[in-house]
Design a protein that fits this description.
It catalyses: dITP + H2O = dIMP + diphosphate + H(+); XTP + H2O = XMP + diphosphate + H(+); ITP + H2O = IMP + diphosphate + H(+). It comes from Limosilactobacillus panis. The protein has one domain: Maf protein. By secondary structure, it is α/β, with parallel strands linked by helices. α4 packs across α5. It has five helices and six strands. A six-stranded mixed sheet has the order 2-1-3-4-5-6. α1 links the parallel β1 and β2. Bound molecules: inosine 5'-triphosphate and magnesium ion (MG). Inosine 5'-triphosphate binds next to β3. The site of inosine 5'-triphosphate has 21 residues, from β3.
Length: 198
C-alpha cells in the first residue's frame, strides 16, 4: 500500500489526520515512526514553518509528505502566541502554555477574549509537487480550562459553532468538522487526488 507521511511529532495532530484520511486506504505514518529525525522550525510565518517541516521530511524520507504549522492567534495579545504557540511558556508543555495564556489575559474581559486557531498545510512530494492550504476557526478564550480531548489550547478555546463547549469537549470527528485543521484539510482534498496520483 502507498505511504503518506504526516510530518508531525504531535500525536494529537496525528490522531486528527488519521481520522481525516481514514476513507482513503493510504498508509499514514508520522514522525513517531522516525524518532531520530528532528526538524528545526525557525520560520517567521505559519507557511514558512509548514514548508520547512515538509521539505526536511521529504529530503530525509523520500516519500510524499503533509506538514502543518498551526497556532492560536489572540486578538487582545496582538496575535500572540501565533507561530510561537508550541513553546509559548518556554517548553513544549500544554499545561504551562495554557497557564501562561490565562495569566496574560487575567485582566481582559470576556467580550475582548476573541481568538482564532490557524493552520497552514503544505503537501510536498519528492519531485517538488506542492499544495498549500489554510484554515481557521474563531472563538473565545475561557477563564478556566475544561475538557479532556484534543491537545494544546483546546481546553481554553470555545469555538463559535458551539454555545457552551470547549474544543477539548468535542470528539475528534466533531473537532475535525469545524477546526482550522479540518477546514485546511478539506481545502486540500479538493486537489489531493490529482496531486497524489500524479
Ligand atoms: O510541529 P509538529 O511536530 O507538527 O507539532 P507541534 O505541536 O510543534 O505543532 P506546531 O509547531 O504547529 O505548533 C502548534 C502549537 O499550537 C497549538 N495548537 C495547534 N493546533 C491546535 C489545536 O488543534 N488545538 C489546540 N492547540 C493547537 C499547540 O500548542 C501546538 O503545540
Ligand atoms: Mg512544532
Amino acid at each position: 500500500m502507498e505511504t503518506l507521511v504526516i510530518a508531525t511529532k504531535n500525536m494529537g495532530k496525528a490522531r486528527e489526520y488519521r481520522q481525516l484520511f481514514s476513507p482513503f486506504g493510504i498508509t499514514v505514518k508520522t514522525l513517531a515512526d522516525f524518532p531520530d529525525f528532528i526538524i528545526n522550525e525557525d520560520g517567521q510565518t505559519f507557511e514558512e514553518n509548514a514548508f520547512i517541516k515538509a521539505q526536511a521530511a521529504v529530503d530525509h524520507l523520500h516519500l510524499p509528505v503533509i506538514a502543518d504549522d498551526s497556532g492560536l492567534v489572540v486578538d487582545a495579545l496582538n496575535g500572540a502566541p501565533g507561530v510561537h504557540s508550541a513553546r509559548y511558556a518556554g517548553d513544549h508543555d500544554d499545561a504551562a502554555n495554557n497557564a501562561k495564556l490565562l495569566h496574560e489575559l487575567a485582566t481582559v474581559p470576556t467580550a475582548k477574549r476573541t481568538a482564532h486557531f490557524h493552520t497552514t498545510i503544505v503537501a510536498l512530494k519528492p519531485d517538488g509537487a506542492k499544495l498549500v492550504t489554510e484554515g481557521r476557526v474563531d472563538g473565545v478564550i475561557r477563564q478556566q480550562p475544561r475538557g479532556q480531548n484534543g491537545f494544546g489550547y483546546d481546553p481554553l478555546f470555545m469555538p463559535q459553532e458551539y454555545r457552551d463547549k470547549t474544543m477539548a469537549e468535542l470528539t475528534v470527528e466533531q473537532k475535525n468538522k469545524i477546526s482550522h485543521r479540518g477546514r485546511a484539510m478539506r481545502a486540500l482534498m479538493e486537489k489531493f487526488e490529482s496531486w497524489w496520483r500524479a
